[in-house]
Design goal:
The complex is a heterodimer.
Chain A: H1 7-14
Chain B: H1 14-30, E1 35-51, E2 54-69, E3 89-100, E4 103-115, H2 118-124, E5 130-131, H3 137-153, E6 157-170, E7 175-189, H4 190-195, E8 210-220, E9 224-231
Antiparallel strand pairs in B: 1-2, 2-3, 3-4, 5-6, 6-7, 7-8, 8-9
Classes of the chains: A mainly alpha, B alpha+beta.
Chain lengths: 38, 253
């Protein structure tokens, strides 16, 4: 019999793991601080 | 398959920095009080396309006050940012720009400036003097005394007060009132002014000569006054850099 797997299980199995050392890109905003934060 | 929408602009992207620089120059050129502000951080940016080479850009900017008075001819890049210990002042600005064929123009801007909290300053620098209210009696007395002292000693034009830029008061270990104020030359020499000061009027725009004074009045443990005034010389007003400004919607508190 065919049993439908729960999406979470599929998503977990099919989720491609990030390569070792992967650094997510910085959020686009807010930008860098040029002097100091008040 | 329709082309994927362009990635949202990042706050540190070159295009965002160009928009922010244009906005800061606009804000300083439109301000007539206080000091020049410089960019500290691009808080947020949104770009909405209106068609080919035609975008509306919304910017949220964090600015910091510099030590350059707004009327000073010093280029912004040469202006020192007021340090934390000098009781920094921050500006928050929302600017709406249009970018048409690669050229920016400001459609509206609104700014609000506020000094850093006294607690923050004292936490970093317990003995630092704090900003005082500009209508504080000691501040007004220091400004009046300093300007009269300058006018009584100068051989140049008699100066009139334009505005008090900032003031701070220190109570320990000495009681010191420090003030900074903008001045303008009048059509009198300081000598003429002694006879009829009411006749001394600010020079017309085509001859205007603005300047700035810094003074320190020591009240305790001994009385002392030091005044340093600098006139910029006549500056030909810069016309708008060929950009249309509509609905400036600009105010600063």
């Amino acid at each position: 019999s065919v049993a439908k797997r729960a999406v979470a299980v599929v998503a977990q199995h099919d989720k491609v793991p990030h390569p070792v050392g992967f650094v997510p890109p910085p959020p686009p905003c807010p930008g860098k601080i040029r002097h100091f934060e008040i | 398959v329709p082309a994927a929408p362009p990635a949202p602009l990042g706050c540190d992207d070159p295009e965002s920095e160009a928009a922010a620089e244009f906005s800061v120059n606009y804000i300083n050129s439109r301000s007539h009080h206080g000091y020049k502000f410089t960019l500290n951080r691009i808080e947020n940016i949104r770009k909405i396309s209106q068609g080919p080479n035609n975008d509306i850009v919304f910017l949220e900017l964090d600015l910091l006050e510099t030590t350059c008075p707004i009327l000073s001819p010093t280029p912004l890049e040469n202006c020192t940012v007021r340090s934390f210990a000098q009781h920094a002042v921050e500006g928050d600005c929302d600017v709406k720009l249009q970018k048409l064929d690669g050229k920016f123009s400001v459609l509206a801007s609104k700014c609000h400036s506020h000094a850093d909290s006294s607690e923050d300053v004292l936490q970093v620098c317990p003995d630092c003097p704090l900003l005082a209210s500009l209508n504080n009696t000691e501040v007004l007395t220091a400004v009046t005394t300093a300007l009269n002292d300058h006018n009584s000693k100068t051989t140049d034009a008699y100066l009139r007060l334009l505005e008090i830029g900032r003031a701070n008061i220190q109570y320990a270990p000495a009681h010191i009132v420090s003030v900074e104020f903008a001045v303008a030359a009048t059509n009198c020499s300081a000598e003429d002014a002694k006879d009829n000061v009411e006749a001394c009027q600010l020079l017309p725009d085509d001859q205007s000569n603005f300047g700035f004074c810094k003074a320190t009045m020591v009240k305790q443990p001994s009385q002392d006054l030091s005044v340093d005034c600098l006139l910029y010389g006549h500056q030909v007003p810069t016309s708008d850099p060929g950009v249309t400004y509509s609905h400036p919607g600009y105010d600063i508190s």
